[in-house]
Design brief:
The chain is mainly α. Helix content is 76%, strand content 0%.
Length: 180
Amino acid sequence: IRGKKMDKISKEYQEIIHEVKILPVEQLDIKRVEKLIRAYIADKNYEKALEVLRVVEDREKDNPSINSEFGYCLVELKQFDEAAKYFLKAKNQGREDAWIYSQLGWSYRNAEKYKEALEAYLKAQQLGDKVAWKNAEIGMCYKELGKYEEAIEYFKKVESLGRKDSWLYANMFNCLKALK
């Protein structure tokens, strides 16, 4: 079933990409634009998705879905500061879910804005994000902020969830060493 579903999705994406060759993006309704963006993202063609997003940016500047997609593409292209701006726009336009806060956290941490990242990750967890790696991210933020006891607490959560590797133990060791 999974293969058939992927074939159907792939066929839909091919159809929308073909449609755009006939009609310019400016003339597409927002549903088709979003479908086209998702097609490029599914294909990991983030530059092409950004091209489409830039065409509709002015007319869709108040659309949290479009701003979320902008942020996602920019994260994939490692443009973390710029990505955070779009995730914030989406959040301020009403997208208040665990995903947006998780993406904000990732953007901020990679931009070395640890305080903001920590706040975003904690909010994501508060909103129900149960992804295990989030504890490692929170631990890293606490570590970078010099809050080593809190960092160790989160690293222990990571360990209790089954991760037992050199990365984890090196970070725990460095925090313990900093406490002495």
